């Protein structure tokens, strides 16, 4: 494993702890579908939340959010659709959030796209 991969795992574990403290129930980490991967999947009440984790420890706040391009959003939507289909949750309310770690701290954006 390379250092970037290991760092990504550590930030995703930190993110999982963060969303649990927010009261979310973690359903899945690193969900892989044919067209993409979702870092965290959680439940916030009745809502299924697909969370993209970005780490920019030396960057400015918002740099990680800006890295979620239109193509990345498309791949996340396809992976989320696969997850919802597989779990029989096609009609469940859902949203996409971004959790960013930067030198300024943690930035959590609900309904990011």
What does this structure look like?
It is a single chain. With 113 residues, this protein is of the alpha+beta class. It is 36% helix and 37% strand. The protein has 3 helices and 5 strands, in the order αβββααββ. The chain has helices at 3-21, 63-66, 70-87, and strands spanning 25-33, 36-44, 47-56, 94-102, 105-109. Strands 1-2-3-4-5 form a 5-stranded mixed sheet. Strand 1 and strand 2 (36-44) form a beta hairpin. The longest helix has 19 residues, at 3-21. The protein is globular and about 40 Å long. It starts with a helix and ends with a strand. 23% of the residues are buried. The model has no long low-confidence stretch (mean pLDDT 92).
Write the layout of secondary structure elements.
Layout: H1 3-21, E1 25-33, E2 36-44, E3 47-56, H2 63-66, H3 70-87, E4 94-102, E5 105-109
For the terminal residues, how far apart are their CA atoms?
Answer: 31 Å
Order of helices and strands: HEEEHHEE
Low-confidence stretches: none
Number of helix segments?
3
| Shape assignment | globular
Whole-number mean pLDDT? 92
**If strands are numbered along the chain, what order do they take across the biggest sheet?**
1-2-3-4-5
Report helical residue fraction: 25-40%
Report the sheet-strand fraction: 35-45%
DSSP strand tally: 5
Oligomerization status of the protein chains: single chain
Gyration radius over CA: 13 Å
What's the story with the biggest beta sheet? 5 strands, mixed
Structural class per helix/strand content? Answer: alpha+beta
């Amino acid at each position: 494993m390379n250092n970037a991969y290991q760092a990504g795992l550590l930030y995703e574990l930190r993110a999982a702890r963060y969303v649990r403290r927010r009261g979310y129930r973690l359903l899945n980490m690193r969900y892989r579908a044919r067209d993409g991967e979702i870092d965290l999947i959680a439940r916030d009440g009745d809502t299924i939340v697909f969370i993209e984790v970005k780490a920019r420890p030396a960057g400015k706040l918002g740099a990680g959010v800006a890295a979620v391009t239109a193509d990345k959003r498309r791949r996340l939507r396809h992976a989320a659709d696969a997850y919802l289909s597989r779990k029989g949750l096609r009609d469940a309310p859902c949203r996409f959030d971004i959790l960013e770690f930067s030198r300024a701290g943690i930035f959590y954006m609900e309904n990011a796209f």
